[in-house]
Design goal:
The complex is a heterodimer. By secondary structure, chain A is mostly beta strands. Chain A has two domains: about 60 residues, no CATH class; about 60 residues, SH3 type barrels, CATH 2.30.30.100. Chain A is elongated. Classes of the chains: A mainly beta, B alpha+beta. The interface between A and B is medium-sized, with 26 and 29 residues. β7 of chain A pairs antiparallel with β5 of chain B. Chain A: Belongs to the snRNP Sm proteins family.
């Protein structure tokens, strides 16, 4: 089953909940999908630049330092996308973001091996 | 089983590496608290010592002292390490300046609490007015 069939056609960055398991998938721009539960997938992205968009519309770009099972994220060398609107964030270079407030994680386009991820998701869907 | 080495906390997502550092805690209601992290747990409940709230209205700001605070984790959006240039602390020319100042854009000025409260109230009234005006204009169906 293709995940794309589960996406609403007019949103380019929709959060998709897998019909097979409790795993939350993040469908990111340019058709990248990532299983949030399998956060080891993220470990490939440690050290890469990501943009984390929060539920309060704050978008923070920074180098991914670490991620845990709650999707808590630590970023380094952060900068806020709209810095003029959030002057208090200028002095923040490293930060911890609580997973519950994350809306999207925008990954670098070449950050995820889709084939590998699809295989891992199918494996999990089968329950092993 | 392998034991985690003490350095591993710097590789993990725990807040341990932020202990005893001056932090900015952004809350879900938009408030910004500054203080030193003394304790935390897996929910991001946090104990801040010497906490103060930073109120920013336009180009003025004020740090209102609060004291020792325990923050319930569910209200935490982000915990950021405050970046302060260490060279500023050893530079005797700059040490006289307000040390907190370099955390903010240079054009921002610090004002007393009474003044920031006035500005806050004015801003709130302005947004309320905008809201009611928009509501009254709704029948025009502008978009």
């Amino acid at each position: 089953m293709k995940f794309s069939s589960k996406l609403s056609p007019n949103s380019d960055a929709a959060k998709v909940v897998s019909p097979f398991s409790s795993t939350t998938h993040f469908h990111l721009r340019r058709n990248r999908t990532i299983a949030a539960k399998d956060y080891r997938e993220h470990s490939d992205l440690v050290g890469r630049e990501v943009t984390v968009e929060l539920k309060n519309d704050l978008a923070i770009r920074g180098t991914l330092h670490s991620v845990d099972q709650y999707l808590n994220i630590k970023l380094e060398n952060t900068r806020v996308v709209d810095e003029d609107k959030y002057p208090h964030m200028r002095s923040v270079r490293n930060c911890f973001i609580r997973g519950s407030v994350v809306r999207y994680v925008q990954l670098p386009p070449d950050g995820v091996d889709i084939e590998l991820l699809h295989d891992a998701t199918r494996r999990e869907a089968r329950g092993g | 089983m392998s034991w985690a080495s003490p350095e591993d906390i710097y590789l993990s997502t725990s807040l341990a590496s932020y202990l005893d550092k001056k932090l900015l805690v952004l809350l879900r209601d938009g408030r910004k608290l500054l203080g030193t992290l003394r304790s935390f747990d897996q929910f991001a409940n946090a104990v801040l010592e010497g906490a103060c709230e930073r109120v920013i209205v336009g180009e003025i700001y004020c740090d209102i002292p609060l004291g020792l605070y325990i923050i319930r984790g569910e209200n935490v959006v982000l915990i950021g390490e405050l970046y302060t240039c260490t060279f500023l602390l050893i530079d005797f020319v700059l040490i006289d300046k307000d040390v907190d100042k370099e955390e903010l854009p240079p054009h921002m000025t610090r004002v007393p609490e009474a003044e920031i409260r006035r500005a806050q109230k004015a801003e709130r009234e302005a947004t309320d007015l905008k809201g009611t005006m928009r509501k009254r204009m709704e029948f025009l169906d502008m978009d």
